[in-house]
Specification:
By secondary structure, the chain is mostly helical. Helices cover 65% and strands 0% of the residues. The protein has one domain (2-114). It has helices spanning 2-6, 9-16, 20-29, 36-51, 55-62, 66-79, 82-99. Helix 3 crosses helix 4 and helix 5 crosses helix 6 (66-79).
């Protein structure tokens, strides 16, 4: 979904490929030959980038240095440049909404099971 809302053509192409993580690995490594270890790293990077992880978490997950993790994350941003731009735009929008004291989520968007107490948002 991230590829489509951010309108990143390279990431959309990777998502539409037969294997997103191999496609990402090929983009990161600039190579057509990808082994299982590089694919696993690309998969971890994909999930961390989608859910907001950084170099410390990536380094811990892959048991690599923070410098190497930072390099992989920067290469991912170069490979899929519209994703970090979209993420920054969304963060700015949410901060502005919060400062304006506007609700960040409409009541209907939060599943009933996640609402505290009587089902109403606080």
């Amino acid at each position: 979904m991230l590829a489509y809302v951010a309108q990143d053509p390279g990431f959309i192409e990777a998502v539409n490929s037969t294997d997103l993580h191999t496609a990402t690995a090929k983009g990161l490594m600039k190579s057509e030959t990808i082994d299982a270890e590089v694919r696993r790293k690309a998969k971890t990077i994909n999930f961390l980038k989608a859910y907001g992880g950084g170099k410390k978490l990536l380094a811990a997950r892959l048991k690599i240095s923070e410098e190497e993790a930072d390099s992989w994350l920067k290469q991912w941003d170069i490979t899929y440049p519209r994703i970090p731009t979209y993420n920054r735009e969304q963060q700015q929008k949410w901060k502005a909404d919060a400062l304006d004291h506007r609700p960040l989520w409409p009541q209907e968007a939060v599943p009933f099971s996640l609402r505290p107490g009587n089902g109403r948002l606080l």
